[in-house]
Amino acid sequence: MASTDETIGGRVAIVGTGSRAEMFVRGIIERPASVVVAICEPNSIRAQYYNDLLVSSGGQAVPVYKPEEFQKMLKEERVEVVVVTCIDALHDLYIVPALEAGVRVLTEKPMTTDVEKCRRILETVQRTGRHITVTFNYRYNPVHELVKRTIAEGKIGRVLSVHFEWLLDTVHGADYFRRWHRQKTNSGGLMVHKSGHHFDLVNWWIDAEPEAVAGFGKLAFYGDEAGKQHGWAKDYVRARGSDEARDDPFAIHLEADPTYKKIYAEAEKEDGYFRDQNVFAPGIGIEDDMSVMTAYSPWEGYRVMFNGSHGRLELEVVESQYRIPSSGEGVSHGTQPLPHAGDATVTLQRLWEKPEKLPVVYDHAGHGGGDKRMLNRLFGPRPGDDPELGDAAKQGANERDGALALAVGLMANESFKTEKFVELKSLGLAL
Q1: Fewer CB within 10 Å, N or C, the chain?
Q2: What is the pTM for the complete model shown?
Q3: Radius of gyration of the chain (CA)
């Protein structure tokens, strides 16, 4: 039975070639213990971008397989590891047959998007005896490690309550309303897709599992009705070729980013997927204002407060203090530091004592340094890097962790509809 704490090496296939795949492809190229041997992708233009990247980095182009050829790919290319980075709602279509074929699976979060698919994955894990690694990269952020370590050492006693607020700004937050995430059938909504970060962190930080969720969420800012009400709406379908979009601060211009131009603007003629849709168009099916998150803030970052029996721990991370309209800055989130970066602070205050600012090590790129450290742990260190031991060696997340984070989002979505508490046991997951 494979362990999620083991370093992975060998022959790797990439499933899905959107922008997130680039982190994994570049990471594997840089680490000699693994090699990309195949790509599974329906769009040949996007697949070619990644083959060009492999060749320009000193490697070789690899065979490209269509989704219906996935099992053929596993066999013909002797795949040992599959990295799943496709549309969230399709993850299970690759996770399940890969597990059945005895192939190691790494999947982007969220693990999947609804309870039926989650049950299917968990049943396959139980039946095959093989585990999944869910790439919760924020666990590897050194600031988040500091928070976990401080709580585990009992510095604030027993954690009694947690308050968590996550703010997405009007570039990053708006981006979910331009692309396939804007429909719950694809993404599960922001409570499933984005909040997988939040809910997994809380579960991991306090070593606890959710029992019940009550939530409130609405589409308050994006979409046609709210856009007209607030005076932001522009009349266009997608930004490319639109005069209306030229002065829309919420529009994305694909040609301004070399990668987006290649994998989206030039690739859309094959599949008709528009990556630059109007965020104030009709038909958006996800929320933008939820109990733990807002997707239209002027600044980006998060605050977390832990109230304990012996004190309080506060974390504040300002990833970007503000944005400039239509500058093109920070279009691709997570690969480079966000513009106008702020600070990260961790404050410990025990009862009857002065507050103490804990020393932090923070990297503004790659999810606070989490991406690099996760890749070092999963695929081995880059030449010249030290192995990730200690805390970083204990942070792997498996299918249970993925299911628990997903469950909070699913319960929140249900609570939005019913206005009632939703219990974990009502999902019927074999946890």
Answers
A1: N
A2: 0.94
A3: 21
